[in-house]
Amino acid sequence: MHRERIARLQQALKGERLACALIVPGPNLFYLTGLRMRMSERITMFVVPAAGEPFFIAPRLEAEKIREYTGVKDVFDYVDEAGPVGAAERALAGLHVRGGRVGAEYRYMRLLERDLVERAAAPLGFRDIGGHIAEMRMVKDAEELVAMQRAAEIVDIGAAAAKAAIAPGVTEREVAAAVERAMLAAGAEAIPFNTILTGPNGALPHGLTGDRPIREGDLVICDIGAEYKGYVADITRTYPCGIPEPKLVEIYRVVYEAQKNCREKARAGMSGAQIDALARAVIARAGYGEYFIHRTGHGLGLEVHEEPYIVQTNTRPLSAGMTFTIEPGVYLPGIGGVRIEDDVVLTPDGCRVLTQSPRELEE
Domain total for the chain? Predict the structure, then answer.
């Protein structure tokens, strides 16, 4: 259990005059306790009171695991036959939450958990505390950055495997399989996504990997993710098969320059909007602004997409220790697309690039 993180959350609860925070299985539970759990039909909740020791409401078959992995002593458990209502009533009675307000993760909590809490301690007022935890998670500590660096090294291995597998007649799915084998062998704990798009399919930023065979002259977009110790790396490289047509070479050069401009100029104190503009200006000057149809990047850590977002509407200054992607792209319908993506961490005097796969177009 991460005591310092929990103490910061408790300060936020006091500031909001909330009795407690209700945390469900997912990234915030892992961030606060080190425990990885999936949602299931058996409700588990981590309850962090504004003052005092946190505790769990959980099925009995999970109770010993929770104690062992988190160090939390108090687990209000229940058996399948009885269900969780009685356990929740016992757990929440001591907090005197009835008639008060509690914090919940609006992004993650299901109606299932909310219904349980309301049955156990109604009436209640709910307030979203997700923003407070997102604020904490944005700036990575040294241990987190070590895990993210290793995840980045694994996706670099995946990118190299993709490049080696590309050849005329090989399908998107076959390239993806080669990537997966290489990353699992390198120590990836999970592969959250692994998208290979060839030729005209590359004009779809979130296209689906299929059985299209690669053809001579195609550009192949390889969007690859890997998880290590709970942290995610995300890389995209666009590789040629043979010699692409001049228009594709042109947009590759444009995207390359836009991405390079961001990598070299991003630094703490700039806003997400300012970093986004570094890429957008290059692409717009080249006449392809209307074909850059997404933000320049997104935060990265315990989730593939998290705060901060590198987008025109994010005017907040960013801080050293924040991690995010830089991934401009140009997509020409019916022809193909190009995206180049790296993971970076802001430093006081610039940004450190975690992913190191070559970016130059090798025709």
Answer: 2
Residue 159 belongs to some domain of the structure: yes
CA dist., res. 134 & res. 235, Å (int): 22
Q: What is the pTM of this model?
A: 0.94
CATH number at residue 47: 3.40.350.10
- Residue 77 binned pLDDT confidence (cut-offs 50, 70, 90): very high
Nearest-angstrom CA–CA distance, 39 and 178: 30
Whether residue 337 is predicted with pLDDT greater than 80 in this model: the reply is yes
Long-range contacts of 293-299 (CB under 8 A, 24+ apart): 293/205, 293/329, 293/331, 294/205, 294/329, 296/262, 296/326, 296/327, 296/328, 297/262, 297/272, 297/324, 297/325, 297/326, 297/327, 297/341, 298/324, 298/325, 299/138, 299/323, 299/324
The reply to whether 220 and 101 lie within a common domain is no
Residue 116 exposed, middle or buried by CB count within 10 Å (0-12, 13-18, 19+)? buried
Range of the domain at 290: 139-353
Is residue 120 assigned to a domain? Answer: yes
Q: Nearest-CA neighbor of 114 among 79, 84, 70?
A: 84
CA distance linking residue 242 with residue 233, whole number of Å: 28
Distance between CA atoms of residues 90 and 171, nearest Å: 57
Indicate if 166 and 108 belong to the same structural domain: no
